[in-house]
Amino acid sequence: MTSVADGSLGQMLARLVEEIDVPPSKYDEAKGHYTAVGEWLGAGDSPLAFFGVAVYPQGSFALGTAVKPAEDCDYDVDAVCLLRHAPGEWTQESLKEAVGQRLRAHKTYKLMLRPPEGGRRCWTLQYADGSRFHLDVLPAKPDRFDWLVELGVPERYAEPAIQITSRECYSDPTWPKSNPAGYLRWFVDRMRPRFDEARKRVAMAKSAEVHQVPEYEVQTPLQRVVQILKRQRDVMFGDDPNKPISIIITTLAARAYQNEADLVVAYRNIVRGMRSQIQRVGSHYVILNPVNPLENFADRWITHPERQERFFRWLDAVEATERELSDARGIEKQAELLMESFGPSGARAAGAVAPALLKSAQPLGEAVELSSGLSQVLAAAHRAKPPWPIDRECTATVSARASRPGFRTVNFSDRSPSPTLAKSMSLGFTLSTNTPKPFDVYWQVVNTGDEASKVGGLRGGFELGTLEHRESTEYRGRHSIQAFVVKSGRCVAQSRPVYVLIR
């Protein structure tokens, strides 16, 4: 039987998934992008056509575990460009450059390449601002897979193995190996009963054949829990490059999943079971790739111990959140916990299930104010678009403080918005970035409200500045400030918008 507490939590988790899920239109758009690229690369007049081009998605869009990106961030779509009959004498550099040359032969794609010379492994196409997409195209060729079968990998998982290009390995005759299609088959098999049931339900609702239902329209409890876990990670670590990687989260969750049909039960059992899926060999941790026993997803924890620290800090927080949600007495406490762990998305989910809480629970009300208020600021007509190509190679964060003589200083940041501030306070903002010098810093202040509008004080442009920036709380209303790091004519890092509410 389901308890009352589980019933309300189930409603909140379901609404949370709705808040963070990628809408079907974006899946359609993503499919349109990588299909068009594949058609261009494999067209009859393409130099690559003879080699048998196949372009297919990999990563979260293929797995059905993608989540909506933060404001001002792109949908990151990954695709493989497989040349089925690539010449045996081609090097990694030859294969990658052949794909790049064909992309540059397209009058539009050549202007979309970021950076123009290509990345470490992929060619990245940056679509127009309104689309909020970038597509990473990974050149690849088939790999022999008998060695995987010999290691005990089922043939249907081993068969689509590929070899990929990496600038770091150009001088190495042994190509890097990958198998995203095999991983997808393994992942779907981990939830096969629930996946097939859900697909049949969607087909019946649409009066369609089962095979006509796109996989992205099917959602199982496993996929939903992975989305929830990834959102808690993003709320905790933002753009931190050392945050837990999605492949580890997805693998541990899939291994812990026992095909539970109920979302709450699946969430509870997955969270409680993930830690036991991590192996330890001596002083090192091991999380094996299920379709390649020679690959340890945690191998970089050895050279980057900060990644191991972030992962276990996240896992501790995930376990604590699940435990507190399960033990919570009353919908009010569950709502507060959801907001604390999942930010504005959690607040909106809790508020949708228990709207009366918006009046009785101040922290929840503040989170809803943040989610709706910041959205209004970012949608302001006078907010200018960045004039530089956006190539986020580095990270940037902004810390802030509000002060007034005789009053306590208030600290906040681009990850923890300000409380409601009074007028006539001094504001100080400090940018931290790992961008190598030299670089330029631009600040974008966006303000709204009748006071600023009446005196012509609306702002939304970019101001050249330094790592330190000062403002004051002059106008009542909702405002934001964001830092952009520009190097060689490209924006290589940008902070999240810092939300400032003045009343």
Walkthrough of the structure:
- There is one protein chain.
- The protein is an alpha+beta fold and 503 residues long.
- 40% of the residues lie in helices and 21% in strands.
- The protein is built from 17 helices and 19 strands.
- The radius of gyration is 24 Å and the shape is globular.
SSE topology sketch:
Blueprint (H helix, E strand, L loop, with lengths): L3 H17 L3 H18 L11 E6 L1 H4 L11 E9 L8 H13 L4 H4 L10 E4 L6 E10 L3 H5 L4 H4 L3 E3 L12 E2 L1 H11 L1 H15 L14 H17 L8 H11 L6 H12 L4 E3 L2 E3 L1 E2 L2 E5 L8 H23 L3 H23 L3 H4 L1 H17 L17 E8 L6 E4 L12 E8 L6 E8 L2 H5 L7 E4 L2 E5 L4 E11 L2 E5 L3 E5 L1
Parallel strand pairs: 2-4
Antiparallel strand pairs: 1-2, 3-4, 4-5, 5-6, 7-8, 9-10, 11-12, 11-13, 13-16, 14-15, 14-17, 17-18, 17-19
Helix pairs in contact: 1-10, 1-14, 10-11, 10-12, 11-12, 12-13, 13-14, 14-16
Descriptive key words:
alpha+beta, 6-stranded mixed sheet, 5-stranded antiparallel sheet, 19 strands, 40% helix
* N-to-C CA distance: 48 Å
What share of residues is helical?
A: 40-55%
- Contiguous low-pLDDT stretches (5 residues minimum) are 358-365
Q: How large, in whole angstroms, is the Cα Rg? A: 24 Å
Mean pLDDT: 89
Shape: globular
Strand residues, percent: 15-25%
Q: What class, by secondary structure content?
A: alpha+beta
Major beta sheet summary = 6 strands, mixed
Query: What is the total tally of β strands?
Result: 19
Compute the number of helices: 17
